[in-house]
Structure formats: C-alpha cells, structure tokens
Amino acid sequence: MRGRILTILMSGVLCISMVACTKSSNQTKKNDEVGVEFKHPDKWKSKQKNLDGYIEVPKENITSNMVISFIPYETMDKAKQLDKEADKIPETDKAKLEEASKEIMDLTKEFKEICNIVLIDKSKSEGEIQKSLFSKFENKDLLGKEENLEWYLLYNDKPDTNGLSEKSKKDYEECFGEIAKFKSTIKTFKPISDKEKFEKIKKLEFKTKTLEGEEIDSSILKDNKLTMVNIWGTYCSPCIGEMPDIQNLYEEFKGEKVDVIGIVIDTPDKENEELAKKILSKQGVEFTNIIPNEGLKNTVLKDVSAVPMTFFVDSQGNIIGDFIQGTRDKEEYKKEIQDRLKNIE
C-alpha cells in the first residue's frame, strides 16, 4: 500500500492540487485554482508521507484556502489498525462499514497545521469566516496582490505539539521550521477558474473499461435523461467521504432516469484499481466506476487540478451546466440534479 494512511485517510504525499501537481526537474508545484506556484523545502520532501495538503471550498470573501498539515505517526498507526478492523466487517453490513469509515475520517482532526495560503477577494466585504480564520494565526504575511485579489500566508510562531509522540514532535517541528523557506519560493498569479478551463469541453465521450474489467462506452448515457459524473482519486479523503451521499442520490433518482458514473483519476494502475475496489466496497457504492483511457485523459481530465470534480451530461453526452469543484452534501447535489433536469426537459 506504499505507506499510505490506507483506504480512507488522505495519502501521505504532499500534492496540493490533490490530483496532479505540475512536476518538473526543479520540483515546482503549480495550482491554477489558487493562483500559486512554489517549491517544497528539502525537509518537506524527506517527510512526504507525513504531509497533507487540501483546498477548501470557497466561502464568503475567501476564494480559496490551501491548508498544509503534518500527519502524526500515531495517527497513521491508528488508521492502519482501524483499517484492519474494518476489513473484518461483512460487506453486507453497510451501517457498520459507514461507522468504520467515519471513525477513520475523524482521524483527520489529529492533523497538525503547518500553514495556510489564503486568497481573498477584496471586492467583497470581510466575512466572519475570514475573521475567524485569521484570528487563529499570529502571522498573516501578504504574498501578492492583483486587481481585487490578495494572497496571504498564515502561520504561527511556534508549532502546537500537544499530544504528539517524541518522534512526531521532532519531525513536525522540523517541517514547521521550513515555513520561511517555503514562503520564499511562492509566486502568485491570477487564478484560472474551472469555468474558464472547462468551457471548451462540450461533450463526454469514452470507450474504456470499468473497475471490474468490463468494456464500457458513452453509448450507455442514452439510457438516462441525466448522468452525474464524479471524478475522484483513491488518495482523496474528501472524495471518499462524500461517496455515501452520492450513493444515496443514485438510489433515490434511479426511477427518474438519472444515473451516476465515477471516474477513478489515478488509474489505470493495478494497485490503485484494487484500492479503489476496496474503497467502493467499504463505502457501499453500487454505481459504475470506470478507468480513464487516453481519450478521457486528453479531454475532461486534462485540466483537472483537484478532486473531487463533478459534472453532468444529458443522454447525448452534452455537458449540462458548470463543473463543480470540491465536495457537496446530499441536498446540495440534489438541487444541482433538479436544476439540470429542468434545463433538459
């Protein structure tokens, strides 16, 4: 399992874009959504399995909040133990599997923050979320300005090592001590919105295989008025966390000619395919999940910088409405489905 935090907890690889950080010989990372480019300090590279990065959904005047955290060794050990226990639960016992999944997901609360990169829209009034977030940090360094946008690096003077083992404390302090080096590499630029990136994609077409190895192509779309397509990765805990809600929607809308398809972005890869099957089983997912071929990678997946990413197509594969970045709860997705059904009826 390559030292992952197993099936449901986030991967221990610091890939801020959550999918495919831009890689080059100098290890520069770029995220179009946040509008930042940076390099990892050497000590971060050596502690990759302990580092986690994710981007929160926009709220109020906060356009994006990139959170970089340290994963304690003891948290990893807890995840491994919980995962072993979950393996003993019968696949038919959905309630226990969901409970086990939540227990593992709750371990993310033990992650220790290193710093945040926050993008603020100054054309909007300062909201309570920004006030609350900024109040947590002693340092709020301005990284850059462009038009109505401002980027800030948020961090504290000292790391919070409460509750950590000596090993975790030592490595967390080392990573925390690299914030200044990290800051010196950060460059900002005007973000490229999902709408801008994906507006040129008008249709979903594919001919590939399901996770079970069955041939499948986009002709299956004609059997339904609307199909919800959810792009996810085996390393992405937010993706996995929203699966029960998506499965519930799949069951609820079956009778209304609405289908759901998952695209596992970090496949084809034998190990990831097996991991994906395990995740789907534990989350009680019954809708079809497919392995992307070159056609999908060169179209809808080409500009995906973060997962989960969700979009909707009609019976002809035409994309209906905008792409949705990040997670949503059941009721939010339900409204998205209902709105799109109105547009095609």
Automatic annotation (TrEMBL):
InterPro entries: AhpC/TSA (IPR000866), Thioredoxin-like_sf (IPR036249), Thioredoxin_domain (IPR013766), Thioredoxin_ResA/DsbE_sf (IPR050553). It comes from Clostridium gasigenes. Residues 197-342 form the Thioredoxin domain. This is Thiol-disulfide isomerase or thioredoxin. One of its GO terms (molecular function) is oxidoreductase activity. SUPFAM superfamilies: Thioredoxin-like (SSF52833). The keyword Cell inner membrane does not apply. Keywords: Isomerase, Signal. Residues 1-22 form the signal peptide.
